[in-house]
Amino acid sequence: MTGAESHSALPPFLGLTGNEADAGFARFHLLPVPYDGTSLERSGARHGPEAILRASRLLERHDEELMMDPSRLGIATAPPITAGVGGPEALLERVHRTVAQMLSAGKTPILLGGEHAITAAAGEAALAAAPRLTLLHIDAHADLRESWQGSIHSHACALRRLSERTHLVSVGLRSVAAEEIPLLSRDNVRAHLMHAVRRRPFSEAVTEISEAVRRHVYISIDLDALDPSIMPSVPRPEPGGLLWWELLAILRAVIARSMVVGVDVVNLAPVAGLEAPNRLGARLVQKIIGYIAKCQAFWRPGGGADDAPTVPVSR
Ligand SMILES: [Mn+2]
Description:
The chain has helices at residues 3-7, 48-56, 87-104, 118-129, 160-163, 194-197, 202-212, 244-257, 276-295; strands at 28-33, 75-77, 108-113, 134-138, 167-173, 189-193, 216-222, 259-266. By secondary structure, the protein is an alpha/beta fold. The protein has a single domain, classed as Arginase, Chain A. Helix 2 (48-56) crosses helix 9 and helix 8 packs parallel to helix 9. It is globular. Bound molecules: manganese (II) ion. Manganese (II) ion (MN) is lined by residues 139-141, 222, 224, 236.
């Protein structure tokens, strides 16, 4: 058995089988990308997708907040994209191609990282399909460096080139390099740094963020945006992050107003014996699927005009 084959034995999300896990039927397509090769010190995030998928098997399918079972819309778990020959360029090209195929098939791709570098490729595919979208970037770090450790494909540069051509809303930032500061005040960027978010009632930030996001959105969540007290299993934990219900409040408000083109949840680096963060990652993916499912109006390629109505989650 080769390495690629053993990876394809990853368990399906929620343990779904049959029609609900069928790629043709399923509305949502999970794409595991167990890759963390751009950092010289490999981060452990290559084990994140498997940890999320395994933890998901223990979740309740019914969501007590939404009063529905979002998995009835179907959640397919695609074969993982793993590092092969060709380095990060080849891997990112495969991520781009796979996400583009999912989008053109009318599916909602949800990537499981792996490191944040994959957002560059998935975000490009989303941008090609929905050119006026907002990239909602939830992260402790800005990830806007020009290059890092000699590579422009590094996790530390995940958003640099995308940020030059998209509308970017960043939330959760609390570790920003001096060279990144000017990039956060450009016209196409709205940055919500945590020290400023914490000075006001949180609901004000939620309103500002959701109103800044355009009709179409790609959501990239680096789990280190969360506070290390609830999410210690990340390569670069930073104190003073978002809490669980705060993150969900942002996602719920954004998804109620905007149509989600794609999502990634990255940077889970599982710690042996520490199961709660893995389960958090799985529950977060399930929550995002639930919020999108509850909104009922899905983004579709070529459809979904900018003024297409969405139905608020609260209805
Ligand atoms: Mn980060």
